[in-house]
């Protein structure tokens, strides 16, 4: 996947850095938000994230009869245009954007925010480093999805000659040298204002680019998630090196999913 494409289909990207938990993060959130304001992110919003946890049955399996619901705070700190921003949690920093301009710019913004958190708190280690890219494939009126996507990415939906396809999904998981790659491709009939998104990423707090909105009709979404789950001492340079490797894994999945026709259209 080239970052120099003029019509690239990427509509949402996030990076997730999980670090040592800070139970009193609320004490530091104001200072972190103020420092992020000075580097271009002046819109802080405190939110509540609902977490569900299941009790354990006698046989060791999760028990749906014992469900605990807990609300934990998080802070959304975005730019004025609401196209990029940070999500600050008690144990993580997420940077996400709907105006992806290439890995170098994206990583630089993420690391600037991570430096702010480290300067205010003093982080000890990271447990997880992750990247996730969502690309949408929306054929023009006289085109078909199979012109853009390889058969493996279209799933069984491509085999139905009658009726109207509602949903089709395929998933592959691979253990790479850099970490774990989860590659999903799903096709659906969309009627939304923006491309379909996985439920765990909803609601989307950022504004999607106009060229992706509205998003109606039969569309496909390529959802590639590559992450390293390993405790390492906190180091900006080591985190950046891991991000670069994870980005290679993302590119492998994306390139395996698309056709030469798609490359020519998007370049």
Question: How does this structure look, described?
Answer:
This protein is α+β, with helices and mostly antiparallel strands. It has 5 helices and 9 strands; from the N terminus they run E-H-E-E-E-E-H-E-H-E-E-E-H-H. The protein has a 9-stranded antiparallel beta sheet with strand order 2-3-4-5-1-6-9-8-7. The mean pLDDT is about 90.
Provide a brief overview of the structure:
By secondary structure, this protein is of the alpha+beta class. The protein has helices at residues 25-37, 103-121, 151-154, 236-257, 260-266; strands at 10-19, 43-56, 62-78, 84-88, 92-97, 125-137, 167-175, 180-192, 215-233. It is built from five helices and nine strands.
Percentage of residues assigned to helices: 10-25%
Describe the main β-sheet briefly.
9 strands, antiparallel
Helix tally equals 5
- Structure summary, number of beta strands: 9
Number of domains: 1
Span between termini: 10 Å
* Average pLDDT: 91
Indicate the low-confidence ranges by residue numbers. Answer: none
Give, in spatial order, the strands making up the sheet with the most strands: 2-3-4-5-1-6-9-8-7
Form type: globular
> For the CA atoms, what is the radius of gyration?
20 Å
Strand content: 35-45%
The SS-based structural class is alpha+beta
